[in-house]
Amino acid sequence: MKLSRQIPLNALRVFEAVSRLMSFTRAGEELGMTQTAVSYQVKLLEGVLGELLFRRLPRRIELTEAGERLKPKVSEAFALLDEAMSAARTAADELLVINTTPTFAAHWLARRIGNFQLGDPHIAVRLITDTTVMDFNRDPGDVAIRAGRGGKGEWPGLVTHHIMDLDFAPMLSPSLLEWVKPLDSPRDLLKCKLIDPGDPWWRRWFDAAGIPDADLEGRPRNLFGSQALEASSAIAGHGVAILTPAFYREELANGRLIMPFDLVASDGSAYWMVYPENRRSQPKIRAFRDWLLKDIEAHPL
For residue 29, what are the domain limits? Predict the structure, then answer.
């Protein structure tokens, strides 16, 4: 059997306190133990070592020779353990892992996270991009940003904060518009190549445009997995993508993308910041939450 499995760590902790305070009573008070429990742990350690560690004298105790040899090493060992635990806690407190969707990371968070770090320079940030449902007991991340309806029961056991509503509209490049024009009505989009026509947003948008009979079946699909990649394909002129305007204001402003119709639709979903209830009071999470909600309020998406 390995020696590490035989070491009675609790008894060693008790020995360290007694040898430092030279009192069974004061050691018990410090450790939250009764004097009887302290005495039992010391006797347990003496039994393991086969040596007496203390001489019990009237009104006082003394370390034996074996106790004198053991004391400095045990004190040093627990000091190292305390230092290691403190360093681990500090590292955890100073690194915030944000698990977010690729589109939100690329088109909003990455562009603004520097402002958060200016206010809290001691917190390092790591971004992980993913679109799957997150399990906080298994997946890396202190907080997550996900799209959903945020209804009761959707994320049980998690604190949720609304970030922005998700709306959408068709967008295409100027070169593609020049090729397919005129686009006089929303129905004219059906003569274009649609990037991922199986995306439910397309059906929702055409319904809102008064075209419930839009033929979206049988069209070739591109399953890119994120708005960011669909937007890149649209900018390259490969088709019409259905995107969230708030994420592409810069591209719309500089003409890299064009929104041919003013109609913007929604399916009731939104982006939410979520984290477990038991992390509510962590300073790094409170700091990020407060900054994010304040920034969103000051600069609505």
Answer: 3-91
Residues with Cβ < 8 Å from 75, sequence gap 6 or more?
Answer: 16, 19, 20
Say how far apart CA 113 and CA 97 lie, in whole Å. 12
Rounded to an integer, what distance in angstroms lies between the CA atom of residue 254 and that of residue 243? 16
In the chain, DSSP assigns E strands to 54-57, 60-63, 95-100, 124-129, 143-148, 158-171, 241-243, 265-276
Amino acid at 116: F
* pLDDT beyond 90 at 253: yes
Q: Return the amino acid letter for 252.
A: L
The CA distance from 2 to 9, in Å, is 14
What is the pLDDT at residue 3?
43
**Of 65, 91, 117, which marks where a domain is finished?**
91
Read off the pLDDT of residues 119-165 as tens digits, 9 standing for 90 and up: 888 888 999 998 888 888 888 899 999 988 876 668 888 999 999 99
The CATH number of whichever domain residue 42 belongs to comes to 1.10.10.10
Q: How many domains does the chain have?
A: 2
In this structure, which amino acid lies at residue 254? N
The two three-digit tokens of residue 274, written as one number: 């979520």
Task: Judge whether 271 and 103 are in contact, CB under 8 Å.
Answer: no
Q: Which of 32-36, 157-161, 239-243 has the highest mean pLDDT?
A: 239-243
